[in-house]
Amino acid sequence: MHQPRKLKAGALLSVVGIATIMALLLGLMLLLLRYNRNETSLLLRRLKLERNLESGTALLLSQVYAEKASEEELIDLFKEETDSISLQHYPWGLYEIAIIKSFEGIDTLKKVFLKGNAIQNDKAYALYLKDDDRPLSISGKSVVRGTAYLPPAGIRKAYIEDKAYEGDTTVYGDIKNSEKKLPALNTALVEQIKLLNYDSLKNRSDSVLSFYALKDSVNRSFYQKPLILSSEDSISLENLSLKGAVVVVSKRAIYLPSSAQIEHAIFIAPKIKIAKDFKGTLQAFAQDSILVEENVELPYPSALGLIERRTENSVQEFTPEIAIHKDAKIHGVVFSVAATSATDFMNRIRMEPGSEIHGEVYADGMLELKGSVFGSVTCQRFVLQTPSSLYDNFLLDAVIDYTKRSRHYLESALLQTAGKGGIVKWLH
After folding, report:
1. Phi, psi angle pair for 265, to nearest 5°
2. Helix and strand tally (H, E) in the chain?
3. Is there a single domain that holds both residue 56 and residue 204?
4. Which UniProt keywords apply (predicted)?
5. Per the structure, how many domains does the chain have?
6. In a domain? residue 386
7. pLDDT digits (tens, 9 = 90+) for 8-34
8. What is the distance, to the nearest Å, from the Cα of residue 237 to the centroid of all Cα atoms in its chain?
């Protein structure tokens, strides 16, 4: 009789082992499927939040939203209660900080950027010289390239300081008649900057700290309230690093040495000195003077502003001035605002040979231009001081070249001709 075949114990173990492995593989596949579903859900949610961030950015850049108040606003984009964003914007010197948050449940994405304004090509120009019934005289290696608004008295070649005009034509661009007043400033913005002073900021109840209580460097996110560092005395930022949403205000003076590391901070004082070899992005606003020494570099978007505070009857003992020394380079805006219409002791912006401004110069007073402006110049009058004489409405070896302004440059809202909103810089 045939005996049944017996299975070895090892074979049974193999079957059990294979079954176990198959069960593990099946379980792993189920886990992977669940994980992929979760990852896909997270990815789709992130894409949705990013899309809503883009929509919020477009809203913040629109002219309609620019006119709204700066308080945070919650918006349901598509009225389905699943696409929520919050928008906020507030002034930051000549520009605006714009914050967008997109959220669903506990998931949140956010962005912050510095907002500027696109240039309106039909209103762009290289030079606007106020009509004072006097011509502009040009000599030496001077260049004016781009549209020029000049007094009806025109422009003429001149021979001064043993130099004749070397160009083929006086203006390399269209010439149009200027008016007896400068293009209007954004008065609301100017008044807003005037409020940035020691007396108005020292009593704010939040985010105000005595400068001399500062024990370390500061890196302040623009998602937080700006930190205000104030002092009744002069301030020196020797070996300090200040980055982000920081405002430094002094009742006397501020000194920025080359050892200071500055990024996007704002400085306010009657007098501000930026020392030789300093490099940093900043906005500085003074009432009496701003001195920029040799080899200083202020990357875009920086701003220097002189805003006078005297009255019609006050006695002026000095000329308010922004002085930009040899080989200094400023990328952004340099401007002055006169306190009165008086023509005596007019404020002055002075650029020494080798200095460069890449952007805009607006002089509500005198401009002594011995350097180069790669962008636009707006001024009441030119002056030229030489060892032998003082010349009125003369350019000698000066360069104004609108064509060399960067195509990525965005204007501030200082002039009322500013166009639609644009992103100057992301500030993550």
Report:
1. -75, 160
2. 4, 29
3. no
4. Membrane, Transmembrane, Transmembrane helix
5. 2
6. yes
7. 656 666 777 777 888 787 777 777 767
8. 21
My answer on whether 128 and 91 are in the same domain is: no
Report how far residue 314's alpha carbon sits from residue 287's, in angstroms, rounded to the nearest whole number.
14
pLDDT given at position 120: 82
Q: Which H/E stretch holds residue 135? A: none
Residues 73 and 187 in one domain: no
* Residue whose C-alpha is closest to residue 376's, from 421, 324, 327, 334: 334
What is the SS3 assignment for 69-110?
Answer: CCCCEEEECCCCCCCEEEEEEEEECCEEEEEEEEEECCEEEE
Shared domain for 241 and 229, answered yes or no, is: yes
Distance of CA 267 to the CA centre of its chain: 13
Structural domain harbouring 91 = 28-117
Of 91, 117, 143, which one is at a domain's C-terminal end? 117
pLDDT at residue 197, rounded to an integer: 78
Same-domain pairing of 136 and 232: yes
pLDDT level of residue 413 (50, 70, 90 thresholds): confident
Same domain, 328 and 292: yes
CA distance 202 to 250: 10
Name the nearest CA neighbour of 343 among 177, 132, 128: 132
* Higher per-residue pLDDT: 194 or 151: 151
Residue 298 lies in a domain: yes
Coil, helix or strand for 64?
A: helix
* pLDDT at position 152: 96
Tell me how long the chain is.
Answer: 428
204 and 287 share a domain? yes
What single DSSP character describes residue 428? -
Kindly tell me if the per-residue pLDDT of 125 is higher than 80: yes
pLDDT digits (tens, 9 = 90+) for 41-57: 667 777 888 888 888 88
